[in-house]
Amino acid sequence: MAENTEMKTDRATAVEHAMFLRNAMQEFSWNMHSAGENTNVIQAHLTESYLKCEDEESYKINEKEMCPYCFNLWRNGYYEMKTIPKVKRKGRYKVTALELLCLQCNTL
Description:
By secondary structure, the chain is of the alpha+beta class. 23% of the residues lie in helices and 16% in strands. It is built from 2 helices and 3 strands.
């Protein structure tokens, strides 16, 4: 059996992860728009993502009090999970994307 090749060090930067998450959000937004959903209610941020490195907890960059796209703090910490989590992969990171209502982030 071959060794697990994912153990190599291919750490992505926080900026690279943010771009990946932004692209996932845009794709999710377009899919909802194509399906005829009301995207105006959900505003611009449609996914909340947690980056979890398989072996180092310190590489989790999104905390619940922080916007995963602009990294600004929420004004009141309010968000609402709307869907079942979706799991994507980028490098050694597991990315769980949840649709959310981001009512406080000003980076729209």
